[in-house]
Amino acid sequence: MSEPYDKGDTFCPSYHHAVEMIGKRWSGVILRELLLGASRYSQLRSAIPSLTDKMLAARLQELEAEGMVTRTVVDSVPVRVEYALTDKGRDLEATITVLSEWADRWYPDGPDRPV
Amino acid sequence: MSEPYDKGDTFCPSYHHAVEMIGKRWSGVILRELLLGASRYSQLRSAIPSLTDKMLAARLQELEAEGMVTRTVVDSVPVRVEYALTDKGRDLEATITVLSEWADRWYPDGPDRPV
DNA sequence: CCGCATCCAACTGGATACTG
DNA sequence: CAGTATCCAGTTGGATGCGG
């Protein structure tokens, strides 16, 4: 990661895909909530106030298609839906932890007041 | 990161800002190239083939405004411009490394062929 | 070499209302 | 509870061309 610059070793598609998937609007926040233990749709909703139904539902579908989460309908009344991280999704924990630490280091008072 | 879910401990603005900044289109890739040693505008251009001038210039301005990179005009003919990571930008190395490893683990053959 | 200006089609996502 | 439907303004970013 710190050797002399090699012109050949460029444009990494896997990393590219990964960083823009977790960085897509709300996705990173949703994944973090799931890592923190949220599992129900309504938990996610109330955990992230400015997130609308439309966005949450859309992102969860995308994350499911990416193999990051599973969706399980619990047949009760009223219906509940449980979302759970897959191994792949849970494996992001290290990344999200390290990035959270970075954020705390450089935005201890929130993003509007950088260090 | 793995304790029982606490409804209060939600919506982290610093992390939210961070993840969507590095996840914005091309930003993560540009930061990675800078970490790998790229410094000139033209290096970044040729390192990332599908990245246009417009996008590269725009992202570099945003990253500069975020305090992630510095921009230095070298007064030669023709003009060169050097981009360098700030401490804040360099401090992202751990995150990008860990995420790259995740990507290699789950997309060893590229994002179109997940494990 | 390093951009910026313009045009423009496509996508995004907020508001609001409604369903099983 | 857990979504979907519709509308629509705003943003995005590719293409192309020009300028210091």
From TrEMBL, chains A, B:
Keyword terms: DNA-binding, Transcription, Transcription regulation
PROSITE patterns noted in UniProt: HTH_HXLR
Domain HTH hxlR-type span(s) in chain numbering: 12-111
A molecular function (GO) term: DNA binding
InterPro entries xrefs: HTH_HxlR, WH-like_DNA-bd_sf, WH_DNA-bd_sf
Pfam family, one: HxlR
UniProt KW Transcription keyword: yes
PANTHER family membership: HTH-TYPE TRANSCRIPTIONAL REGULATOR YODB, TRANSCRIPTIONAL REGULATOR, MARR FAMILY
Protein's name according to its UniProt entry: HTH hxlR-type domain-containing protein
Provenance organism: Kibdelosporangium phytohabitans
